[in-house]
Amino acid sequence: MKFGLRVRGGVLATLIMFAVPVAAPLAGMMMTSPAAAQTVNSIEVVGNRRVEVETIRSYFKPGPGGTLDAGRIDDGLKALIETGLFSDVKINRQGGRLVVTVVENPVIGRVAFEGNKKIKDEQLSQEVQSKPRGTLSRPMVQSDAQRIAEIYRHSGRYDVRVTPEIIEQPNNRVDLVFTIDEGQKTGVKSIEFIGNNAFSSYRLRDVIKTHESNLLSFLGGNDVYDPDRVEADRDLLRRFYLKNGYADVQVVAALTEYDPEKKGFLVTFKIEEGQQYRVGSVDFQSSIGTLDGNSLRSFSRVSVGSLYNVEQVEKSVEEMQIEASRRGYAFAVVRPRGDRNFEAHTVSVVFAIDEGPRTYIERINIRGNTRTRDYVIRREFDISEGDAYNRALVDRAERRLKNLDFFKTVKITTEPGSSSDRVILIVDLEEKSTGDFSVSGGYSTTDGALAEVSISERNFLGRGLFAKASVTYGQFARGYSLSFVEPYLLDYRVALGLDLYQRQQLANNFISYGTKTLGFSPRLGFQLREDLSLQLRYSIYRQEISLPATLADCNNIAAGTLIGNRFVPFNPTPAFINANGIADPTGTGLGCFNNGEASLPVRKELANGATLTSALGYTLNYNTLDNNKNPTDGLLVDFKQDFAGVGGDVTYLKSAIDAKYFTPLVSDIVGIVHLQGGILNKIGNNELRMLDHFQMGPNLVRGFAPNGIGPRDINPFGTQDAIGGTKYWGASVELQMPFWFLPKEVGLKGAVYADAGGLSGYQGPTSWAATGEFNAPGCIRPTAATATVPANPGTCTGLVFDDSSKVRSSVGVGLVWASPFGPLRFDYAVPLTKGQFDRTQEFRFGGGTSF
Prior knowledge:
Strand order of the largest sheet: 18-19-20-21-22-23-24-27-28-29-30-32-33-35-36-37
Oligomer: single chain
Shape: elongated
Structural class: mainly beta
Strand content: 35-45%
Helix content: 10-25%
C-alpha cells in the first residue's frame, strides 16, 4: 500500500502546500519583555481574501481592561492555525498595533479519481473528507489517501497505490485528483491448521468463511484476504469445537503472512483442542425460595451422556430464563456452571437460578435504520419500554434481527438510564441491499433447458414484507409466479403468504400429454420452536390436459355408421392391414391404436375438460440440520397432508412423509439415510383422477426414468403412459465423501448409494363408454355394425395395466458439485430389480444458477 503527494503548478503552489505553518507563538514580534505588557490598540489583518477581517480579529480576545497580553495573542494564533483555513499565519507587534499576516489555503474546485475501475467514483466520493468548495487541507488529503487505500485493502487489493495531485487554478482555487493504481487482487493462497487432531483440515475449511483462491474465485469474494474476516473465523472455529464437546479449546492465533512469490497471503490457524467431554450430570439450583429449580428441567436441552454442547447450554439458559419470567420472576437470572472431571472426561452442568438486579428498560433507541421502519425492528423484541430488563430476551431479539438479513451488522448495547435501576437499550444497525434481480439457467435430463428471470425484495417498502415475481421459460416447462409474504399478520408472529402461479408442462420423452395449471394459494406459517414449524394452506387451482390430435382420435366405429344426424366419414386404418402392418382379422379396418393412441385415463382427462381442485392442507417440519445448504449432521422431517373436496370437482386425502438423517462418519465421510412414503385415499364415491395419483421415477429410485416406475398402460399399440399409483415407499442409503486430492474450494464431492422403493395401487378409471358425437375424445362403444370387434385388452373400450408391486432397486455413483453456478449433480445408477414395463434412465444430470 503506497501513497504520496504531487503538486502541479508554480512555486507559489509548492509553498502553499508544503510550507510548515510556522511562526512560533510570538516569532517575528520585535518586542521586549516590557513591551509585552503594552496595550494593543488595533489589530490589522493582511493577506486575507475570503475570510472576513472581523472573523480573524475575533480570535484575539482582550482580557479585563481591554488589554491583549502575550498569552492571549498566543492562544489566538493557535486557534487560527487549528481552523485549517490557512497554510501560514504570522503575527507582528508594531507599537500598539498587532499585524496578523495570513496565507489562506486554496479552495477545492473539484475532487476527481483516476485509474479506479473496481470501485466507482460515487463510493469513493462518499468516503473522502475533502469535498468540492471546501478548503484544502494537506493532512486531510493524506488521510483521504489512506482511506482510499483501506477501501481497496478490504476488497483484496493490497498492492494499491494512491497519489493525490493538486492542480492550481486561478483565484486561489485548486483541483484535487486522486490517481489510483489498483494493482492485482491479493487472495488467500493457502489455509493451514496446526494442532487439529479431532477434525481434519478439510472439515475445518467448511467452518470458516475465508476460502483459498482457485480458478473460479472471480465469481465470489471469500478468497480475498480480509483481516476482519480472519478474526471472525477464529471465533467460528472456537464455537465449532465448543459445540462438539471440546470445552477447553483455544484458537491461539491466526497467523497471516504475505508471500511475494505466490503474490498472496498464507493463513495459519493454531488450535489447542484439549479433550472431548460428555455431560456427566445436570442439576438445577434455585436461590429463589418460591421457585423450584427442578420445575425448569423440561426446558433444558442438555441430557446426561450427550456431548457437551455450549450452544445447547446457551439455548437452555434462554428457555429457562424466559419461562421463569412468564411465571412472574421477571428478574430471575440463570447462570450455567460446568465442573470438569478430567479423568472421566465429563462435565457436570449446574444451572443456578438467582434473583438478579431489579432493572427496568427506560427506552429502546434505534440507530442506523435509514430505510427500515422502526416498528419492523421493535416487533422482534419480546420486551418493550417499562418492562424488566431480561438479557436472554435481548439476546433473542439480536439473533432475530440478524436472521432477518436486512442489515450488515446488528449490535445491542446498554447505557445507564435516568436512575440506577433504569437502562437504555441502544440498537445499532447498518442497512444493506435487500433486493435481488436474477437471471437463472439450468438443464436437466428431465426438464431439458430452462431459464428464469426473477425480481424479489426481502424488505419491501422498508416494512419487512417479501415480494417476488418470476417468469420461467424452458424446453418442456413454462410459467410465471407472484409471491407475497407478510411475516407479522395483525402484529402476531404468524406469517401470511400469498402465491399466484401458472405452470405449463409440455409433452416430452416421458409423458405423451401436457398439462396447464393456474392456481392461487394463501398460507399461514407458525414457528412452534426453533426446530419445529407448522404451515397451514389452502389451494385452489384449475388444471387441464392437452394432447396431440393423433393420440386422441380413437373412433371404434365403422365408416358410414350414423351417429346422431352425422355419418362417420372414414376408417382410422385401411381395411385388413393397419398402419403398423398388423392384420385386422375382422375386416372392418378398425385399428384404434395404429398411430400410438394415448392411454384411456389420459384421454378421459382430456374429454372431461378443465377441472377445479380446492384443497386444505398442512406441513409439519422438523429441522435439526447443522447447515441447511451443506448438512453433515442432523435430521430433517417433512410430514404433509392435503384434503381436496372443499368445493371443486375433485375429492381425495393425500398424505406424504419425507425424512433425511445426516451423520458424520470417518475421514470427512457423511452418511445419509433417506426414507419416504405416501398414500392417496379415495373419499366417497367420486372417482380418483389419473393426475392426482403419485408419479415416481428417479425421485424415488435412481436409475429409472421420470414416470418410469409403477402402474402403466400395457397396450402394445399405444403410448404406454404411466398412470401412477396411490401408495409408494422409498429407502436410500448414501455415503458422500470429498476428493481429498482436490482443493476444498473446488466444492466437489463423490457419492455412492443404494436405493429401493415401490409404487402401486392405481385406482383411476379403467373403462369408459362414451356417448355422443363420433368425434368426441376417447372411445365410443362399438355399434351393432361393428359388434364383431372384440372388447378385449388392447382395444379402446377398456384399460389393462401392469400394477406390479415388485421392489425396484438400484446402486449407483454420483458427483456433487457446489459450484459458483449453483448446485450441480451427476448420477449414474444401474437398476438391480425392476418391473416388466418400467423404464430406465441410467444417467441423470440436473442443476442451475443465478448470474
